[in-house]
Write the structure tokens for this entry.
Amino acid sequence: MSATSASPAEHGLSPDGSSSSATHAPSSRAVLVWDAPVRLAHWLMVASFAGAYLTAESERWRLLHVTLGYTLAALVVFRLVWGLVGTRHARFASFVRGPRAVMAYLRSLLSRHPEHHVGHNPAGALAIIALLATALLITATGYATYNELGGEWLEELHEGAANAMLALVAVHIGGVVVSSWLHRENLVRSMVTGRKDASPDEGIRSAWRSLAAIMLVAVLGFWWWQWQSAPTGDLSSNAPTATQAPGHDDRGRGKGRDRDDD
């Protein structure tokens, strides 16, 4: 499933393995950089986190919160695996760098010739790793909280992690806006189309659309199954399903039991 290996020189990489240059190559044109699974996972994670965050305090929309929480967890696991075996610019090895590279990139932003990276830049890589790690923490603590595997501290950790991720999302969006302006390229559009301006040899060979289609079918199939599992066939049902809810607030469950005892 991985892209064909080649030397850094063949891929147009710098000696440290990164794909960067002070400016666009003279022969640059729009080439495919982000494969379809990366783009689909990115936007599904955006939708899943946003929906789960907005429904976190609602007992009525518990099942929707559960469904989106599990979807987010599965997407993060996929992205971690794809970061090891995926296409060239999707691999962590192509963009995760040490502190020295991060500081060099940040210093270049203050100059007239900021480093240009075809894939993720070193600073953006930090945000991506932090977002993936925080998403795993959110779903793990949410699952444990709902299943009463920890005390109130675990619930507070879950809520804190969700708020921390919201802050990271804001930082990430800010970085995308700044980078788009400095490099004169629309990074949001590139995450939709998969294309960026670069030399032809820096592009990827395949978009892996078939894998993206399988992913989409799997996600939609899971959502449909969750909807069918609800007693009323409604994602706003507060009845539990075969899957337990990552991130569900136990206080809502306690209130339900109190009403039953009255």
The longest helix spans residues 152-183.
